[in-house]
Amino acid sequence: YYPRGEERKNYILNSHPCFSSNFSNEDLYVTDLKHALCLFINNTSYRTDRQGIIFNDREHNIPVLKDVWDEKKKRIKARNFAIFAPTGEGKSFLANNILRQYFEMGVRLVIIDLGGSYTKFASLYPEQYTVLRYESGKSLGINPFFITKGDDVTPERLEDLSVFLFELIGEGTKPKKEQSVALKKILHAYYKKNAEGHSLDSFYTYIESQRENLLTQLHIHSDYFNIEGFLHILSEYVRDGLYSFLFETSEDQSYKIEDKRLIVFELDEVKDNKEILSVMLKLIKTAIQRTIWQNKEEKGIILFDEFAKQLKFDNVLESVEFYYQAIRKQEGAIGIILQSINQLPDNSTSASILENTQVIYSLNNEKGYKELKNRLSLSSHDLNQLKSIKNNLSGKRKYTEIFIKIGKESNIFRLEVPQEVFAAYLTDGGDNEAIMAFYKESGCMEMAIKQFVQLKSKEL
Ligand SMILES: Nc1ncnc2c1ncn2[C@@H]1O[C@H](COP(=O)(O)OP(=O)(O)OP(=O)(O)O)[C@@H](O)[C@H]1O
Ligand SMILES: [Mg+2]
């Protein structure tokens, strides 16, 4: 016997998931999970979202859109993301792919990079990007005290500035209300007394010259503001202090980034100095607050790449966490890229970062995914999916496979890109050097990539 006509139609239409109740009991049978899943796979396909980032499905390589922003926040509450994989597995390549597409949808990007993986992508948009590079012993050109006119001294501005100073003196982000009020009063008085030349140095001098009667004048109890301690800690950052060069700038350069949509901070040279790096991150945050995200409705993403080693330093981890707190009020997201989840130390700061990270990407990891499963409380289904990841980075058609979990939903996607795109994203090796050499010659990244692709096709 085999079904024909209407019967056959009945079998075909109802053998989709959730339709089994239309079968009679005689049609049903019990089988093991493997067998059932084999049939199940034939009945489902990748669902493409209305909007999102383009990936490929792993079965037929068909492009699919994956909505990892979740405009209405139906699937996630915070859209911050993290990418995990050992070195060379394609994290920065994936981040290039995600960021480029966001950028083209009008999202503003701030990339804080210690490894130079975004230079090619950024230089494809010469009008819209800017790079602020840290050079040893020089300031980044950010002056958080800088104002252009008196009305710039808004309560919000004083609030941000006081938070910056508390962070700088190591009081953390949540100083006591009494302390915070005291510092804001002093800042306010400083701006009233001094019409120009605002800087950390001049603020320092102001407090120092008034140290005898400043608190009495402003009706601040000495318990609420420790002038001596404040001057002592800040002495490292002013005059001939060890780190004074970080603040040596009269003009604020942040106007340079004001209208740029793609901003890269290259901090390669500061990698190993945790003190400078953490001050740098705080300065960058003030610049972002003042310029990029003045308009809270505007979408933006801040990405931290190659920060793994630095996150072990307490004050760097905290500086990164400050960004998470700041972005809550904005239409934005923060992305971090790590080789292993263990690079986030097991403490409350990391816990708060992970809690706020609801979009997870993981690439292939030969060492397994146990830590990831434990720290992120992944399900066994998630783990099975992770274990099924396979890359092909040596064949003719190269791709990586990626586990993406957004809120509670997870799936595996593939990332296979055209040659030109590959050239724009690749981060290392001779190919990268070849493209950069072409770029140096012509000063045009698009042309350099075309030349490279031509060169490659001749080689084949
Ligand atoms: N989806 C992909 N398709 C083709 N090639 C890829 C893909 N992903 C990665 N690659 C190749 O692998 C190289 C290394 O990738 P990438 O720099 O992204 O690794 P990473 O995980 O960021 O490493 P690290 O931790 O050292 O920064 C790229 O330069 C590129 O040549
Ligand atoms: Mg990388």
Structure report:
This protein is an alpha/beta fold and 460 residues long. It folds into four domains: 5-41, no CATH class; 53-135 and 254-417, Rossmann fold (3-Layer(aba) Sandwich), CATH 3.40.50; 150-246, no CATH class; 428-460, no CATH class. The protein is 41% helix and 13% strand. It is built from 18 helices and eleven strands. The chain has a nine-stranded mixed sheet with strand order 5-6-4-7-8-3-9-10-11, sandwiched between helices. α11 packs parallel to α12 (314-327) and α16 (419-425) crosses α18 (445-459). The longest helix has 19 residues, at 274-292. The radius of gyration is 27 Å and the shape is elongated. The N and C termini lie far apart (55 Å).
Q: Which stretches are poorly predicted, pLDDT < 50 over at least 5 residues?
A: none
Total helical elements: 18
Largest sheet: 9 strands, mixed
What topology, given as strand order, has the largest sheet? Answer: 5-6-4-7-8-3-9-10-11
For the structure shown, list the relevant keywords.
nine-stranded mixed sheet, two-stranded antiparallel sheet, 18 helices, alpha/beta, binds adenosine-5'-triphosphate, 41% helix, 4 domains, Rossmann fold, binds magnesium ion, 460 residues
Short description:
By secondary structure, this protein is of the alpha/beta class. The protein has helices spanning 5-14, 33-41, 91-104, 119-123, 155-168, 177-193, 200-209, 214-217, 227-234, 255-258, 274-292, 314-327, 348-355, 370-376, 380-387, 419-425, 429-442, 445-459, and strands spanning 53-56, 63-66, 80-84, 108-113, 129-133, 262-266, 300-305, 332-338, 357-362, 400-406, 409-415.
